[in-house]
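User: Predict the full complex structure for these chains.
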Amino acid sequence: MSAPASPPPATDRLRHKTVSAAVTESLRQRILNGEFAPGIQLRQDALAEEFGISRIPVREALLQLEAQGLVRIMPHRGAVVTGLSVEEVEDIFRLREQLEPPLLALSARRFAEADYRRLRSLTDGYGAALAAGQVDRWGELNRSFHLDLLRYADRPRSLSIVSGLLQDCDRPTRLQLSASGDTARADHEHTQIVALCEAGRISEAADLLQAHIAHAAVSLVAIYRQAHAE
Amino acid sequence: MSAPASPPPATDRLRHKTVSAAVTESLRQRILNGEFAPGIQLRQDALAEEFGISRIPVREALLQLEAQGLVRIMPHRGAVVTGLSVEEVEDIFRLREQLEPPLLALSARRFAEADYRRLRSLTDGYGAALAAGQVDRWGELNRSFHLDLLRYADRPRSLSIVSGLLQDCDRPTRLQLSASGDTARADHEHTQIVALCEAGRISEAADLLQAHIAHAAVSLVAIYRQAHAE
DNA sequence: CGCGTCATTTCTGGATACAATCTACCCTCG
DNA sequence: CGAGGGTAGATTGTATCCAGAAATGACGCG
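Assistant: Here is the predicted structure of the four-chain assembly.
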């Protein structure tokens, strides 16, 4: 209300190309971080006022989030943050088990020195975030690592699907696996997958990737079941 | 709370309660029908005037279409209808080959009389549309048939992915396979898949489904390559 | 004659204002 | 005392209007 007429350069933290995209990203992070828990209703007016903008970019952000499956919009009834059922989580991990290993086999052939350096730096950062307990950073690095493994698979649609799967299993992971001790094992497996690729033992790397995803699945599903049984 | 156990069968018949949703559906149909060819730029103002509405619902519709991958929006530069490259089409069919057969194996066990009736009516309508040369109806029925085959797989995320794949390979199919004679073969294979399921020979049905998708893939990719080489 | 620069024009992105719809509470009636 | 309906508040959906970015064209300069 104080500065409606003056062009507010007060878009401090909203420094993207469009306000809509910035709001989308911000809301997405907050949902993934658990600040907006499943079931919570997101009101356009409140969000608009909080960001200091009008409701239009908020609406567009919510639409994009709905497309990504993070919220559900019902006409005239607002947007609600979606949660994943145990069945959905299991399905997501099964899909990852099915999709990622063959893609790795395709991609790993084309790895060069620079790729291995990048992958190692990701696993290093992963371990560091793990030690520091930075759960959100951990999830981000995990997703980057897995996507980077498949980078050269040359299957555009497959990669976009896997990317979506990673995002969605990232959310329950951040929320509930942070207390689990199984992340160290994941870290070790990541390192080993890279080493196998570099040694040219690609099919072994693919097998390990599948086992890695399966391990993460059982660990996460167990915790997820426990949390949902409450 | 957990998700309602009742399946959502009423999603398609639901009347459009908002202008935005109606515009989304209309534009989607027009893109799938080829009225808006890939590369065409969709201007908000023109569409709004054509529909006799303001630009806001048009913008939201375009956002939803972008989320579905049908258009690509670049900031301040408008929305253009996307096309699929040959690599993407191949990838999509490979994914379908990989995903659909195991889902059919899961789903087919639960088929009851009513399901077989529905599937047969779909194949019948398919053949009829084929004979009548109704390409758009054909594509719609094909998609319904494949999704109906997997209806009881109980893999929510898998089904939503397959649904997206079907929509995207439906578009090039409608545009270019209409002239091909391979649709009769597809029709026959559809019928046979249902028959195998009904006879309890589920793994054979899954194998045939995979072969069916593979056949469609080689046929479509060949035509697609030819059209793109011109 | 080609190219860079600037103004105009067009279109999209965002803000404000208004209308339609849903929710909740209260009042009346059986 | 409970059920049904109606009204008021809140919240979303849409229209209109304004500002800013990108495409287009003309003009001047090398």
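Residues 4, 18-20, 53-57, 60, 75-77 of chain A lie near DNA strand C (CB under 10 Å from a C1').
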